[in-house]
TrEMBL record:
SUPFAM superfamilies linked: Terpenoid synthases
InterPro entries associated with the record: Isoprenoid_synthase_dom_sf (IPR008949), Polyprenyl_synt (IPR000092), Polyprenyl_synt_CS (IPR033749)
CDD domains reported for this sequence: Trans_IPPS_HT (cd00685)
Protein name: Polyprenyl synthetase family protein
Family in the record: Belongs to the FPP/GGPP synthase family.
Species of the source: Neorhizobium turbinariae
PROSITE patterns the UniProt entry points to: POLYPRENYL_SYNTHASE_1
Keywords of this entry: Magnesium, Metal-binding, Transferase
Names of the cofactor(s): Mg(2+)
Length: 338
């Protein structure tokens, strides 16, 4: 089952992250070296667990945002490399913790760390990476950058708890869901983009623009991820289609299909999600209901909305290859459903 969503007129119909990758390549090589260095430890299990996830093929979009946003405002120095590495460690720690909370067995097509080393090791190595991230932030010496990233770390943790509180609850509203993805995903995108102009000593307008860009890109990115779980392919997802359904996650496609359904259909959702009756037969029925009520199209419609806000945030900035690359990332993030 696939979803084809037409991009808005004038948007890049073959968007890629390659322009951003190419423009940040030199700095990303330094970030990757620092990642390997800072993930090292005399405790053998720490680099084993950390490298298992770090080397699993993620695009490293968040640290690239930090590098790009610093360079965009004329930064010259070393601090952006340390902050980008901090951002990637925060993200990696979150994934390690997420997989434990969600009891996930697959991440980017590979067995999760928890299935190999256990839950305790995953949580503790995540804590180690967070500690290393904060050490690098302190080394940079910018209290403003430290404040932004530390605040994001607290918000992410709040998001984890909030997600637990709404888990398997079919009365979860779209507003509840948006609060979760703001905290769990969008907050780190926003912080990653905002710290660049901070260390470049750019004005408040630049900071606000990059924060808005990152925040709304994060919303769009997560909305598409949640749509892909019901409309993507396992090879693209790095997990099985329907994993969110099996884990009882309340995401926007489910919320919309539930609220638009008949009483019998809502009873089906409560049985499947709240009572955990997530058989393959029930997954097929869920996919049918999501299609029936246009829930995937509307989820992508929300993503397009946030993508437009992210584009508008960058509109006042001068034209440049980096700006064009950042705009293309928005289209790429949404096109993943095509």
């Amino acid at each position: 089952m696939g979803v084809v969503i037409p991009l808005e007129e004038g948007k890049n119909k073959h968007a890629s992250v390659k322009p951003l990758v190419d423009l940040t390549k030199g700095d990303m090589e330094r970030v990757n070296q620092l990642i390997l260095s800072k993930a090292g430890s005399d405790v053998q299990m720490i680099p084993e667990v950390a490298n298992h996830l770090i080397s699993s093929g993620g695009k490293r979009l968040r640290p690239m945002l930090t590098l790009a946003s610093a360079t965009l405002f004329g930064y010259r120095g070393e601090a952006h490399v340390k902050l980008a590495t901090s951002v990637e460690f925060m993200h990696t720690a979150t994934l390690l913790h997420d997989d434990v909370v969600d009891e996930s067995d697959l991440r980017r097509g590979k067995s999760t760390a928890r299935t190999i080393w256990g839950n305790q090791a995953s949580v503790l190595v995540g804590d180690f990476l967070l500690g290393q991230a904060f050490k690098m932030m302190v080394e940079v010496g910018s209290l403003e950058a430290l404040d932004v990233l530390a605040s994001a770390a607290a918000v992410i943790a709040e998001g984890e708890v909030l997600q637990l509180s709404v888990a398997k609850n079919m009365e979860t509203t779209e507003d509840d869901y948006l609060s979760v993805i703001r905290a769990k995903t969008a907050a780190l995108f926003a912080a990653a983009a905002e710290v660049g102009p901070i260390i470049a000593n750019a004005d408040k307008g630049a900071r606000a623009a990059m924060k808005s860009y990152g925040l709304n890109l994060g919303y769009a990115f997560q909305l598409v991820d949640d749509a892909l779980d019901y409309g993507g392919k396992a090879a693209d997802l790095g997990k099985n289609v329907g994993d969110d359904f099996r884990e009882g996650k309340i995401t926007l496609p489910v919320i919309l299909a539930y609220r638009r359904g008949t009483e019998d259909e809502r009873a089906f959702w409560r049985q499947s999600i709240e009572q955990g009756e997530s058989s393959e037969e029930n997954l097929e029925k869920a996919l049918g209901l999501i299609t029936k009520y246009g829930a995937l199209n509307d989820t992508i419609g929300r993503a397009l909305h946030y993508g437009t806000i992210a584009r508008d945030a960058l509109a006042p900035l001068p034209t440049s290859p980096l700006k064009s690359a950042l705009l293309e990332v928005i289209d790429f993030s949404i096109q993943r459903v095509n």
